Amino acid sequence: MSPNRPFAVVLFIVSILFTSHVSAQDEEKNWELNGYLKTLQTFNFISGFDSVLFDNLVHNRLNFKWYVHPNLTIYAEARNRLFYGDLVRAIPNYGDIIEDQGSFLNLSLNIIEGRSMILNTTLDRFYFEWIKDDWEVRLGKQRINWGVNLAWNPNDIFNAYSFFDFDYEERPGTDGIRIKKYYGFASSLELASNFVTDLDDWSIAGLWKWNKWNYDMQLLAGKAREDLVLGLGWAGNIKGAGFKGEATWFKPYSDVEENNFESLLLSMSWDYSFKNTLYIHGSFLVNTGIKGDTESFLLSNLNFEQLGVKELLPYQYSIFLQSSFSFSPLVSGSLSAMTFPGDRAIFINPALTISLEDNLDFDAIGQIFHSEENDEMGATARLLYFRLKWSF
Amino acid sequence: MKNPIAKIFKYLLPSLAFLICSKVQAQDAYEIIKKADDKMQGVSSKVEMSMTIVRPDWSREVKIKSWAKGQKLSLILIEAPARDKGTAFLKRHKEIWNWQPKIDRVIKLPPSMMMQSWMGSDFTNDDLVKESSIVNDYYQKVVADTTIQGYECYKIEMLPKEDAAVVWGKIYAYISKADYLQLLFKYYDEEGYLINTMKLSDIKKMDDRVLPTRLEMIPADEEGHKTVVQYNQMKFNINIDDNFFSMQNMKRIR
Questions:
Q1: Of A112, A148, B3, B47, which is most buried with the most CB atoms under 10 A?
Q2: Within a domain: residue B14?
Q3: Is residue B1 situated within a structural domain?
Q4: Any idea what the CATH number is for the domain that residue B35 is in?
Q5: A137: nearest Cα among A70, A192, A175
Q6: A243 to chain B: nearest residue by CA?
Q7: How far is B209 from chain A (nearest CA, A)?
Q8: Which ipTM was obtained for this model?
Q9: Which candidate, A345, A221, A254, places its Cα nearest to that of A294?
Q10: Cβ atoms of residues A153 and A207 within 8 Å
Q11: What is the domain count for chain B?
Q12: Pairing of the two strands A227-238 and A241-252
């Protein structure tokens, strides 16, 4: 039994108790609790097989905020997930993949680990926030978001997230400290560091943000894992369309090892909304140093949380096109496609969202991935998801 | 009144005004709209409201808190539905940002998003952050007297100025004569077709003034559709610094 287990069990019980009291909140309280309950059904159509793998995920999230003092807030956010289905049964170490073991503060626990069912509870945010005038200090398990671009964020060196992991809308966090000082309405200086036991995992960097000529701009410098990093980002507009971008240069500080490489990541995006709610967005990403292979990428689909921003996609060139449209205030659809021109691979992602009630949403999502790179058969993944989400 | 220049203003200007009475008519309409508009806005304000989108077989409600200073600065915080709670919008001059607390992220919004419907309602983003102004972007003219909800009203025609970035071809505004209450607006497109009707009612005292607290935006060609805004709390001319409208505060406000 890991030392965190009693803690996690208590947390889980407290979470459930809190959920049942949500409706009893009053106006003057110094805490807030909200979250959601969702179910996700996955149909995995494996190429070469006639059968379909069926998996289910019941997922409860609790976001708790405690305003301890005018200057101090404590945040604790938990995700309780129950997995069951064919994939859970088929992959022997599925439980290990689910349980987050990479982070410094290990607050993840598999409460039940059966042959075809896993119940996991994870505290993915747990931090103290101290605010005084223009100063802000956050300590603990938090999300340090440095990205300003759409789709791809080379500047997001602390906690990369993958577009494919759509069900994790909060995105992974980092154990660390972030000190921020604001100047004026849009300028700030930040210093952030993660907590690690191994020097090669250590990231520490500074970020300077400012606003000029109606553009948000930023520069960053520091160390991210085994690389020295230098980055810049911007967000502005050209003739009514959004124009954003980010670039980061990763330079290994020791001799280049087999599993590390120097690379420049550059991404830019344009988006536009038409009056009839049609929204279009185009992005590209260049990753000069990557030499990944699709097969291991497909397997890594199961767990993105271990990946750095440099390794999110195994391709040098990626293009992303997205469009969405509201058929009514209750029904909206989107169609996204990612292509990797150098590697003859494509990812297609249609989605439909329906608002069933004020706090109840239904999604139908497809993910189709096809690559012709590896062998004559090619690698194909086809997934269909149905999701029901109740927010409170 | 010792100052001779002040004397000129006091006595000479009214007589000049008499001479150019055709201008007075336009000036009056401008003043009426301005007074009516000031009443709803104030130099600065804090508002708590709910917005309900009504359709023939369903409805959805959004609750927001908003702060504004003049036309250029505003901050909107979403309180409901639960899914969007804590999301905020900041507008400074022509720039708009959206705060997504769950991913700790500020997204700069493209200007084209302004003309989109706001959260699926019959209001556009522009209506909400008041990009265009009924005072400055239109030529106003009193065209008739009429009675609305028992109040004697001016009927004012508003035509957009040539260089104004506005969506409407023409607006009729109905303003009460006694208290400059906005009671009815009719919005026409450039071809002269009625597109939207806004009815204002539930006249109540809010903070230091009496004004309509319920707005209904009704699209002309869609039976059973409307969006209802109910003001629950309004405070005007609050002491609020320009720095209140910052990235920092967008994240902290509650």
A1: A148
A2: no
A3: no
A4: 2.50.20.10
A5: A192
A6: B110
A7: 27
A8: 0.85
A9: A345
A10: no
A11: 1
A12: antiparallel
Report CB contact under 8 Å: B106, A214: no
B15 touches chain A (CB under 8 A): no
Identify whether B21 is part of a domain. no
Token reading at B24: 């007075």
Q: Specify the amino acid at residue A278.
A: L
Do residues B88 and B79 make contact, with C-beta atoms less than 8 angstroms apart?
Answer: no
Q: Do B242 and A216 touch (CB under 8 A)?
A: no
**If you average pLDDT over residues B90-117, what whole number do you get?**
84
The widest CA-to-CA distance across chain B, in whole angstroms, is 69
Q: Which of B85, B105, B245 sits opposite A185 (nearest CB)?
A: B245
The model's pTM is 0.83
Residue A241 and residue A271 in contact, taking contact as beta carbons nearer than 8 Å: yes
Q: Considering only CA atoms, which of A99, A113, A207, A164 is closest in space to residue A320?
A: A164
pLDDT digits (tens, 9 = 90+) for B131-152: 567 888 889 999 999 999 999 9
What's the DSSP call for residue B87?
-
Give the angle A275-A277-A280 at the CA atoms, nearest 5°.
Answer: 100
User: Could you tell me the two tokens for B112?
Assistant: 């084209």
Residue B19 lies in a domain: no
Residue A7 has pLDDT above 60, yes or no: no
Does position B214 have pLDDT exceeding 90, yes or no? yes
- Provide the 10 A C-beta neighbour count for residue B252: 14
Q: Which domain holds residue B220?
A: 27-252
Longest dimension (CA), chain A: 65
Q: Provide the token pair at A148.
A: 């300003």
| SS3 call for A327 | strand
Work out the minimum CA distance from A131 to partner chain B, whole angstroms: 9
Give bridge partners of residue A245 from the DSSP assignment: A234, A268
Average pLDDT of the residues of chain A:
85
